[in-house]
Amino acid sequence: MKIAIDLTSLSDNFSGLERCALEITRALVDETPDADFVFVIKNEIPPMLKSFRENGRVRFCRIRGKNKLVANQITLPLTMSRIGADAYVFPAFPVPLLFSQKNTYGMIADLGCYDCPETMKKKQVLFFREGAKHTAKVSRKVLTISEFSAGRICELLKQSRERILLLYMGTKKPEPEMISKRKVEEVRDRYKLPERYLLSLSTVEPRKNLKLLIDAYLTLVEKGCELPGLVLAGRQGWLMEEEVKRAVDSGRIVFTGFIDEEDLPAVYAGAETFVFPSLYEGFGMPPLEAQACGVKRVVASDAPALKEVLGETALFFRNNVRADLERALREALKWDGVDASSIADNLARFSWSASGRKLGKTIKKDLALSGDGRGAAE
Fold first, then answer.
1. Which three-class secondary structure state does DSSP give residue 132?
2. In this structure, is the dihedral angle defined by the CA atoms of residues 10, 280, 267 and 30, taken in order, positive or negative?
3. What is the mean pLDDT of residues 237-243?
4. Would you say 290 and 271 are in contact if contact means Cβ atoms under 8 Å apart?
5. Pick among 3.40.50.720, 3.40.50.970, 3.40.50.2000, 3.10.290.10: CATH of 176-347
6. What CATH number was assigned to the domain covering residues 2-170+351-370?
7. Which of 202, 281, 320, 347 has the most crowded CB, counting CB atoms within 10 A?
8. pLDDT at 167 over 50
9. Which helix (H) or strand (E) holds 133?
10. What is the DSSP letter of 236?
11. Where are the domains of the chain?
C-alpha cells in the first residue's frame, strides 16, 4: 500500500494546521507499518522532516516554485496525480481544485469561510469556500478536527456524518528542561517579556479577536486593576496592523511576533494565565499546549469548539462580549486554577498516535472494501 501525503504547507508558515499535518503524518507512518509513503514537499526538505530520510518506507517527491498559488493549485495536483498512489492525503488544507483521484482524504478543519467571513479577506472567503466544496466532493473521507466542525460540514456542505473522519489534534508534554526555571528566564530575556504576564498566542488576524482582548485589558488597566503585563505572541496575519501598533504604543502590551519552536514551551510555562479570546475555532490547540506546559489558569471564549476541547478546565466568557472578558480577567487574578489531575485527564483525550492509527486503519479498510490496494511501493 502506497500513500502520498501533501506536506508542501510545511515550507510556508508553521502554525496550527501545519503542526497538525506534521504530527498526523508522523503518527500515520508509525502506526501503519505495512505501508510505504511519498511525502510531497516544496523546494527543500523542511527541517522537521529530515529525520524521515533514514526511513526506508518514506521517499520524497519535490515540487519547485516561488509562486504559492501556482505551486499549490497547479504543480501540486499534477505531481500528486503522477505518483500512482493507492491513497492521497491532504492533512493541512483542502484538496487542490484541479485534483480528483480515487481514495482521496482531504482536510476541512473548519468552515470559518461560511461562519465568520467578515474576519477574512474577500478573496480568501471565495477561495476557501470553493476548496471546501471541492474537498467534500472528491474525498472518500473528509478529515476534520472536532465534532463541532464535523457538524458544520454536515450542515453546510450537505455531507453524511459517515463520510467525515474525526482526527483530534494531540498534545505532548514537553521535556522538563524545556520548561525549567532557567529556560523560562532565558526566553523572558530573549523576547523581553515582563516578570509577570498574561499570554495569548495565535496568528494575529481578526478571527482570533485580539482586539477584544486589547480593549478589555487596557480598560481594566485604566480602571486601576493591577493586572500582570500582557504578551501577544504569534506571527502577523492580516488586517491587524493598527491594533498591533495600538497595543505596543500603550506601553503595557508586548508583541513578540513568531516564537521559535524550541522556546515556545518556556513562553507558555512562564505565563500566569493563558487567554484565548478567539471568535471561532475548528479546534483550538494553544490553550491545551499551555496546559501541557503547566499553566493552570486558562481564560477562553465559549466558542463551541473551545468548550468541546477544554471541557471543565477553563474559565469561559461569553464570546465577543468585552464586559464578560473583563469579568473573567478580574476573576483570574484570584483564581487558583484547575488542579493538575483534571488537566491531565482532559489532555489524555487527545493523542496524535490515536489519530494517526485511526486514519491508517480507515484507509486500509476503504481500500480493502473497494479492492483498490496495490500493495507496497517498490
1. helix
2. negative
3. 70
4. yes
5. 3.40.50.2000
6. 3.40.50.2000
7. 281
8. yes
9. helix 122-138
10. B
11. 2-170+351-370, 176-347
